[in-house]
Amino acid sequence: MNRSPSVEDLVLGHVLDDLRRGRGSGEGAASRLGTRKERQTRALLRNAGGPRGWQSVVKRIAGGSARTPQELKRLLNYVAREEGVQSTWCNLAGYERDFDPARTERTADLWSSTWTGAPRRGHADHIVLSFPRGVDAERAEVIAREWGQAVFGSGECGDVWRYVAALHKDTDHLHAHFVVDKHGIEEGRFLSICRHAALNFDVMRELHAEISQSHGLNILASSRLSRGIIENPPRQSELRASRDGGKSTPPPPPPLSDGERSRRLATLQGFAREYETLGDLADLAAATGTEASAASYLSRLARALGASAAALRQGVPFMPDHSLHAEGDPAARVEAARNEMIASATEAWEAIRAMEPSAERVDLERSFAEQARASMKLAPDSILLAEHAQIADQNIDPYHNPTLASLARLEHGQTEGVSLDEGLRATLAHVRDEIGERLTALFSIREDELRIAGTSVEEMVARFSLAERSEGQRASWITEQPNTMQKVFWMETERALGQEVRAEVAAFNFAPELTEAIARDQLLTVDRHMKLSDVPALEAIVDRLHDTLKPEDLDRVRSGDLAPLNEQVRDPALRAAVAHELKNEGDLGATSEVGPWADLARAQNRAAELGQRDRAVERDTGHEL
Question: 19, 191, 433, 475: which could join 182 in a potential S-S bond, CB 3.0 to 4.6 Å?
Answer without folding.
Answer: 191
